[in-house]
Each structure stands twice: as structure tokens, then as C-alpha cells.
Amino acid sequence: METSTIVWIIVGIVVVIAIIAVVMFMNSRKRREAHVEAERKKAAELREDAQRTDVARSEREADAARAAAAAKQAEADALKARLESERLARESAAHQSDAQQLRTDVDERLQKADSVDPDVDTDRDGRSDTAQRDERDHAGGQHVADTTQRRDTDTGRRI
What we know:
By secondary structure, the protein is mainly α.
């Protein structure tokens, strides 16, 4: 083999090695760029996911705030209702007391009217016959209706 042939073979090998090196370098660069692009894409997806999570967190915080406000409103309504109930109970008790006082006044006036009225029989205490009969009825005694005299059941007066 001649020297020139050997030189051409070596030059050919070097050129092939250089071409392989350039192709490998280009592929590695493309792979690196693809890897960098994939990392960018992954980072963008993570940011979007974080944004969605942040929006969900904000919505949950708003829901929690609304629920807390509703709970406070319910407590306020319950307190208001309780106070209104207590007020109505006091008002009812006052009306009961007034009604009892009026009932007592009416009974006293009727007793006084019966004691003054000559048509109504009363005992020494000023009670009319109807009051005495009512008292006996409540005590379990029985009375026989007086058939000779008729009386008004509301007033106890003779008719």
C-alpha cells in the first residue's frame, strides 16, 4: 500500500468520525432542547395546577366565611326568638294576672250585688244560694233542685 492511499484512508476515517461527531452533537442538542422544552411544559402545567388549586382554596374560604356568617345569623335569630319568647311569656303572665284580678273583682261585685239584692237569698257570709250549691257540688255533695222557685243560672236570681 502506498502512502497516499493510507493517507486517504485515514482522511476518510477522520471525515466519517467528524460527521458522526457532528450528527451526535446535533442530536444531543435537539435532545437537550426537547428536554428543556418538556421541563418548561411541565413547569407551566404545575403553575396552572397551582392556580386551579388557589382558586379552589379561595372558593372554599369564601364558602367557610359564608357558613360562618350564616351560623352567626342563626345564633342571632335564635337569640332574638328566645328573647321574643321570654317577652311573650312575661306578657302572658301579666295578662293572666290581670284576668285573675278582674275575675276576683267581678266575683266580689257579684257577691256585693247579691247581698244588696232583696231577690237573692244569701247566708250570713253574703253568699247566694247558687254559690252555696256550687260549693256543695265541688265538695261531692248533691242537691235537689228547688221546683217551686226557678233561678237564672248566670245570676242566681229568682225568675
